[in-house]
Design a protein that fits this description.
The protein is α/β, with parallel strands linked by helices. It is built from ten helices and 13 strands. Helices cover 34% and strands 14% of the residues. The protein binds pyridoxal-5'-phosphate. The site of pyridoxal-5'-phosphate has 13 residues, from helix 3.
């Protein structure tokens, strides 16, 4: 007998980090920003007229796309926006990765890439990072149907040199190369400067980390006009109204407050450097971070046991039960106070 379950698309979903619903926890497990969004975002929220909710939002996301284009000093036809960069990258996979050859990405990287590839039936090859978790650019010069690289990479926190990125883009003219810059505001050099030079480059950004707006779900991509047009064609074939009226206003308000943005990014970088040194003092191996998190290997206790014991104490960090990185913890950079609580508890645990 046939069953409707025979016709179900069976996938192994992405596992998001835990969002504990209790208060008074130190939550440094999903790379959120510990600081609130800009005061201008609060103002925009207050000024929003709920009357507007009766209408559909602008399908072109015009106001926000104009603000982003102006911010980066590029043409608005070079910007695409979506419901977080997850939506933007998923849409890009659907749009650009339709060849017969496998797409390429590192074996250790954002764990959504293989999930989208499986969902959309895209073949892929995971290229091992070197022993020190860096990318060897020459490994990306082989037959492929597309490339995606997170820069800085997650969960390693390591940035790839912009010259190496350009080398990969330049030597793959018949593939779209996506550079996922979720963490670029915290270090590394952006590939945005290359979008006018290469028509096969798509740079993806998010408001979730550096702009403290993970809950608002805003992501965007920058590329040549053709790339953006193809992305929009797919978007309008799936869901035309992605960002809400309210979200668009909040996004514009954030972009307009550059001073606040730079200020919190700098604070996080300072805290990162301070507590990277503190962890090293406790014998941890800490990779060189260009992001808002630390990737660290504990000493005197294994990573999983430390993860569990910290959780018992209401301190949430991220552990990946995955080959090559199962001795590491990914620790988002919180406030100095939160990071000090972490250090004090680790000291207490490892004695
Ligand atoms: C957080 C993250 C994203 C997704 O961010 P959203 O904009 O919140 O969807 C994409 N890529 C990487 C590497 C990330 O760390």
């Amino acid at each position: 007998m046939n069953c409707w379950k025979d016709n179900v698309k069976k996938v192994v979903p992405y596992t998001p980090g835990e969002q504990p619903q209790i208060k008074n926890v130190v939550k440094i497990n999903t790379n959120e920003n510990p600081y609130p969004p800009s005061p201008k975002v609060y103002e925009a929220m207050k000024n929003f007229d709920a009357d507007n909710l009766k209408k559909y939002p602008d399908p072109l996301i015009g106001k926000l796309i104009e603000a982003i284009a102006e911010y980066h000093n590029i043409d608005k036809d070079m910007v695409f926006a979506g419901v977080g960069s997850d939506d933007v990258i998923g849409m890009a996979f659907l749009t650009f990765f339709n060849g017969d050859k496998p797409i390429l990405f590192p074996d250790i990287t954002y764990s959504f890439y293989d999930v989208w590839a499986d969902l959309f039936g895209i073949k892929y090859e995971q290229i091992p990072l070197l022993e020190d978790f860096t990318i060897r650019k020459e490994d990306y010069i082989r037959e492929n149907g597309g490339i995606i690289i997170a820069n800085p990479n997650a969960p390693t926190s390591i940035a790839l040199d912009i010259d190496d990125i350009e080398y990969i883009i330049k030597n793959n003219p018949s593939s779209v190369v996506i550079i996922d810059e979720a963490y670029i505001d915290f270090g590394g050099v952006s590939a945005l400067g290359l979008v006018n030079k290469y028509d096969n480059l798509l740079v993806v950004r998010t408001f979730s980390k550096s702009r403290s707006m993970a809950g608002a779900r805003i992501g965007y991509a920058v590329g040549c006009k053709d790339i953006i047009k193809y992305l929009n064609d797919v978007k309008y074939s799936y869901n035309s109204y992605t960002l809400s009226n309210l979200t668009i206003d909040l996004g514009v308000a954030s972009i307009k407050d550059d001073e606040y943005f730079r200020n919190i990014v700098n604070k996080i970088i300072e805290t990162r450097e301070k507590y990277s040194a503190e962890l090293k003092k406790l014998g941890f191996t800490v990779l060189d971070s260009s992001s808002n998190f630390l990737f660290a290997k504990p000493s005197g206790i294994n990573a999983y046991d430390l993860f569990e014991e910290l959780k018992r104490r209401n301190i949430f960090v991220r552990y990946f039960n995955k080959q090559r990185i199962n001795e590491y913890l990914r620790i988002s950079v919180g406030t100095d106070k939160e990071m000090q609580i972490l250090i004090d508890n680790i000291k207490d645990i490892i004695g």
